[in-house]
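To: structure subgroup
Subject: Chain for Friday's discussion

All,

I'm putting the inputs and outputs inline so they're searchable in the archive.
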Amino acid sequence: PPHRKSNESFRLILTTLVGIVVGYFVGASLPSTSLLK
């Protein structure tokens, strides 16, 4: 069904966005923690 296909694509986009946000915060927090040390 097309509903399942749209749901899978939505999950793929959501997973990608979450990965980008997590990677951004990790990359932004690593230099700050190393500077604080």
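Points worth raising on Friday:
The longest helix spans residues 2-36.
The mean pLDDT is 84.

D.
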